[in-house]
Amino acid sequence: MPLSLGLDASTQSFSALVIDTDRGETVAEASVNFGKVLPQYGAPQGFMAGGAEGEVHADPCMWVDAFELLMEALGEACDLADIRAISGAGQQHGSVYLNDSWFDVIGTLRPCESLSEQLAPCLSRPTSPIWMDTSTGEECREIAQALGGAQRVCDKSGSVPIERFTGPQIRRFYKQDPEAYAATARIHLVSSFLCSVLCGADAPIDRGDGAGMNLLDIHRWEWDEHLLRATAPDLHPKLPSVVPGATVAGTVSNYFVKRFGFTAGTPVTVFSGDNPSSLVGMGASRPGKVVISLGTSDTFFAAMPEIVSDPQGCGHVFGNPMGGSMSLQCFINGSLAREAVRDRFGYDWDQFTQALEATPPGNNGQLMVPFFRPEISPRLTLDAPLLAGSEDFLNWKNADAAIRACVEGQFMNMKLRSDWMQVRPEVIYLTGGASRDTGLAQVVADIFQAQVERLAVSSSVAMGAAMRASVNSRGADLGMLEKTFCRPVESGTVNPAVDADAYAEPLREFTALLDSVAS
Ligand code: XUL
Questions:
Q1: How far does residue 511's CA lie from ligand 1's centre (Å)?
Q2: What is the reported pTM?
């Protein structure tokens, strides 16, 4: 059986999905939740909370421990020896810092020892800043100044300097601990680090994920010397090379062959970021379709016919793993905000859906700016949760209205922030855990005035990786894969239930509310 494996190293869990492209079937799926299976890392949601000045880090040893547990679980669901092509994706922007022992150790991993035991001594920085980290405001300003303004950085790299992006994070590390920075011989993204571990060789970075670093010239797809210099000294040799998404990074390492029974020589396509991978897994890697992905962060993205940048400086241009580029807008207050409101009232997810179904579009004028953590779209740095809204809501009297206010606030904000992409979607593809919520899908359809389709694939990131691997190493046809694996579920289509006027006034009021809290 010729199988392809897709991996998804996300914020809260590490997941795998195996497809049989000949039969058009998903053969196996497995997932491990970091907080649940590895509580010893003190990261119940996949990251260590409470860092200084907005720092949010995770331990790379936790990721590789989870990698092993995931392969054990997957090995019980299918025969790993049948896998003929592999790729993967990681949460974007996070970075792993390695000393020069890395190059030897990664090529000689011993199957009788755990990955974390062998790799821990290679870390020149014990933990990795991840995408939720907002600690680098000063570094962003310094990089912008060195380049002659934030817009210049945006023109080159596809984004203004952004706190969570890898370049500003590298600069902060260099400034805080210049010795440890000097002892760093390699800086990997989460995706290229895990790809290296799988291949047993130092892997390159793909254009999709590389564009989330504020270091890459997205017009030439090469490291930009000015950005590198503005970030930290001697940075170029510490970075892997950048390659197109259709590149074989290597073959599965002896470690994975011996420990888990993979077939030696199985090709591994370079890993990408979770959002670029999801673009592929949703069947949207050619321009014309818009995806909303509902996860720890919510994202809105689309393949782009040409490069446009966000005048508000919150949106991004990344590489499209299938060629060209994609636009993306990320909202930090995604499922964590929905969970916070749900938990406040002790609701389960069914009750959450019922609350959305029991309340009217526009919520009788009750609005909420549902930011429980500092938001990045728009940028609002807050010391405390910001739950600006109507009086009723602030008093938390009416659970159902609070839930609708939270969800409407999230998607009105998304509509306003994604206007710069100049895409007027007729169909929106919804993915991620919360996409199963019918009430929420209806809110999206109403606010965007678009048909919403929910695809059968719930794990579009891992699916995208499996599809990329199939196309790249097994010559599979992308169009055929999309027809087979990116179909809407039965009852997965939601049409707007109200017309555009229903949200005209709430959108105006929401804009005014947001302006008032932002100022
Ligand atoms: C995108 C972003 C997040 C992470 C984690 O810019 O920061 O979506 O990729 O999912």
A1: 24
A2: 0.89
